[in-house]
Amino acid sequence: MQPWFASRWYQLSYWLSAGAMTLWFSLRTEGHRHVPRQGPALLIANHQSFLDPVLIGLAARRPLCFLARRTLFGNPFFAWLISSLNAVPINQEGFARDGLKTILEQLEAGRAVVVFPEGERSTDGKLQPLRPGIHLLIKRMAMPIVPVGIAGAFDAWSRWSPIPIPAPVFLPPERGTLAVSIAPPVDSRRFAGLPRQDVINCLVEELQKAAARAENLRRK
After folding, report:
1. Which CATH number covers residue 14?
2. How far apart are CA 108 and CA 140, in angstroms?
3. How many domains would you assign to the chain?
4. Considering the entire predicted model, what is its pTM?
């Protein structure tokens, strides 16, 4: 894909998605200025729904790199679609060796990468324990870590629901209204020398605060 076309396609996809999410799910966002405009950045977020990558991309307003299971690239059209929106295939979810290597490659190339430290979508909408691999990633490279909180996505489209449940902005608020809050970045060097569990505890605290801000931001 030519760079000029890729840029215009990304912008078109962004505004179409922003319109749809605002209209049909009452999406509200805050904190996009906390995402560095250039250079490597690691965005970490709670993981509630299939919708999460789209929501973070809309909130950040910077092209982001997402990791996706290689099996999602089996359909040629869908593979083209997600690749055009900066999805990168990995062999398995979470922080296995393949995933860590891919994330580091993208960061070293100066990209902003989204990871979900829980490793999978929440089973109940609450923040699940973080995978220890996030500590390995932080140890490998100095970079800004940007906590992102998502609220409402579990109600809108949980892993147990076959289809999303809209909460349109033109109707009284329903459970599935969405919000994303982006917190100020944390320098990864802050965690240098800390035990793994201390690092994970700090990340959990940052994610919980971001998720709480997102919850307060939702249309209710």
Report:
1. 3.40.1130.10
2. 11
3. 1
4. 0.94
Q: Are strands 28-30 and 179-182 parallel, antiparallel or unpaired?
A: parallel
> For 12-49, how does the pLDDT look when each residue is reduced to its tens digit (9 = 90+)?
999 999 999 999 999 999 999 999 999 999 999 999 99
Measured CA angle at 37 (ends 29, 30), to 5 deg? 10
Beta strands in the chain (DSSP E): 28-30, 41-45, 65-69, 87-90, 112-115, 144-151, 179-182, 186-187
CA pair distance 32, 29, nearest whole angstrom: 8
- Residue ranges making up the domain that contains 211: 3-217
Concatenating the DSSP letter of every residue in 24-88 gives HH--EEE-GGGS-SSS-EEEEE----TTHHHHHHHHH-S--EEEEEGGGGSSHHHHHHHHHTTEE
pLDDT (tens digit, 9 = 90+) per residue, 147-176?
999 999 999 999 999 999 999 999 999 999
Q: Bridge-partner residues for 74, per DSSP?
A: none
Q: How far apart are CA 153 and CA 165, in angstroms?
A: 10
Whether residue 42 contacts residue 17, with contact meaning beta carbons closer than 8 Å, is answered with no
Q: Please answer whether residues 176 and 152 qualify as being in contact, where contact means their C-beta atoms are separated by less than 8 angstroms.
A: yes
Say which amino acid occupies 139: K
